[in-house]
């Protein structure tokens, strides 16, 4: 997660713990690793802002061996509960 204006935005698992940069244009946040765009989120006043694919990737490490569609469905259900998704 990247913290921007006191709110948290997800990044792909491969970038956890790495330095990233961001830019805000209009109402969107663009998150970069060097010059590579790694995530884009709408600017939000919610505390948690997950991309559904990023969250499914995190869950796939917890539920090793489960079908990827099953993990995506589980991620969708969990994100609906916490209200942290925009997709």
Structure at a glance:
The chain has two helices and six strands, in the order E-E-E-E-E-E-H-H. The protein is α+β, with helices and mostly antiparallel strands and 87 residues long. The strands form two sheets. It has a three-stranded mixed sheet with strand order 1-2-6, with no helix packed on it.
Helix content: 25-40%
Number of structurally distinct domains: 1
What string, H for helix and E for strand, traces the elements in order?
EEEEEEHH
Rough outline: globular
Q: Counting H and I runs of at least 4 residues, what is the number of helices?
A: 2
Average of pLDDT: 89
Structural overview:
The protein is built from 2 helices and 6 strands; from the N terminus they run ββββββαα. The chain is of the alpha+beta class and 87 residues long. The chain has one domain. It starts with a strand and ends in a 5-residue tail after the last helix.
Helix-strand layout with pairing:
Elements: E1 2-4, E2 7-9, E3 21-25, E4 28-33, E5 36-42, E6 48-49, H1 52-62, H2 68-82
Parallel strand pairs: 2-6
Antiparallel strand pairs: 1-2, 3-4, 4-5
Helix pairs in contact: 1-2
What features would you highlight for this structure?
30% helix; 2 helices; three-stranded antiparallel beta sheet; single chain; three-stranded mixed beta sheet; alpha+beta; 87 residues
